């Protein structure tokens, strides 16, 4: 696979990994960095942008869900997963990179109608930090 195709695959896998679909992009990032060490920053930025956009798509899904009162009524009042976002606000989205809970945090932030710009910034920061640690470990 050439450099451009590798970067496209990295962006795509990073986006999909941050949605509610299963998948991981870390192995693709490592593969790109090992095959093309000179693409370090391009790969890091593309992985971060793709993963951030995927996280924001989960945020949007949450935003499109009915308002909180309607959902809580249908769920019988049990929505403990939202308590983290309620308690900590958008800074909790620094953990949006974490497996299993990251996607749920993004959906919850959208559902709770948190400020989208702050959500974007915290999601991007968390995802960049995770990819940066991986990139440093590879090089």
Automatic annotation (TrEMBL):
InterPro entries cross-referenced by the UniProt entry: DedA_domain (IPR051311)
TM segment ranges: 43-65, 92-112, 118-138
N-terminal signal peptide: none
Sorted UniProt keywords: Membrane, Transmembrane, Transmembrane helix
Protein name stated in the entry: Membrane protein YqaA, SNARE-associated domain
UniProt organism field: Nitrosomonas oligotropha
